Amino acid sequence: MSLVFAGALSHAPGITGRAGRADPALRDAFYASLARMRAALEAERPDALVVIGAEHFANFFMNNMPSLCVGMADWYDGPIEDAGWLGIERTRVPGAPELSERLVTAMMNEVDLAYAQEWKFDHGIMVPLHFLTPRYALPVIPVNINCQGPPLIPLHRAWAFGQALRHACDAAPERIAVVATGGISHWPATPDSGKINEPWDRAFLERFLDNRRAELLAYGDAETYRDAGQGGFEIRTFIALAGCTEGSKGELWFYAPIPIFAVGCTVAVVRLAPQVRPCRD
Amino acid sequence: MSLYYVQKLLFELNRDPAVRRQYEENFDGLLRSYALTEEELNAIREPDIGLLYVMGVNGQLLMHYAALRGFEWDAYIAAMRAGESRYGPVRTGLYKRAGQST
User: Fold this and answer.
1) Which of A72, A162, B40, B65 sits at 20 to 30 Å (Cα–Cα) from A247?
2) Domain A2-261: homologous superfamily in CATH
3) How, if at all, do strands A175-181 and A48-53 pair?
4) What are B's interface residues with A at a Cβ cutoff of 8 A?
């Protein structure tokens, strides 16, 4: 089959862990948008969900940090954080190891990847799953882009990864959904936690939704850090999704800064257009 | 400075149940297995969350250690701010380097 669904959403731990401290009207509107995304995802009857995330030292550390890693496990446990702190009970999420191996094998023709047959989910994946697959029945294939410990993968390589993922999905018979999850501007877990640069976020989202490759790849890390905090490095997940959905436009279903969640809360869906690939020998 | 090993300790403490048990049963013994300076050892033991932040510990590691040591969210944020006031700007690590990279 091919890619049947693509979207992007936030994953900050406060979304569930500090839910009671947010403006109820904003929070509920955000949650409603996430529920809408869940319905749209389910309507496409995916066989598996690829989650392009940016974990926070749950599995990967600077002793052996992969720029890109794809999960190939039978199952994944999470959240790794305290369940009370995150507001999500610990559970086991099914994997799709055979499909994942085929995707990884195909992608390796285009990009260098690490893979992992053991992986624990932190809030970066558990918060999206909590809203999108709350019964944890849909097999998941996690992807991690290192956005925590520089040196970080250049943006054009994140785009190239997304392209490789699309090519691999298009060659698979399964119906595959992909979501990217990251913050845009945010300063998580720092003294500036709660600061959100809304104009920067909206400018980035405009480029993302319009799939403007050159403008997306023009961000530099020093400027991103200055204007969008270290959390801004997670734009790599959005850019990978933009590469995966090259030529397609997105719709913004929700965006609002919710400071106690420490991020501009975002829900976006890409209207998938058929991809035209150049002929290869 | 051995920011790498400070962060390695916090990473393993946050993630590894065996290391967590050692923390509960023999904290000093656990600390001795990492290459840490006296200042780092004291900051971890106390804990001085503000100093650990100024030393460059990534917040994604530090917030879990702070929670383990009983800091509620607002107290954690306040401790980092107090650390900046007392010890000055972040010395090394992501928060110092990121703004300088290209």
Assistant:
1) A72
2) LigB-like (3.40.830.10)
3) parallel
4) 4, 7-8, 11, 14-15, 53, 58-64, 67, 73, 77, 80-81, 84, 94-95, 97-102
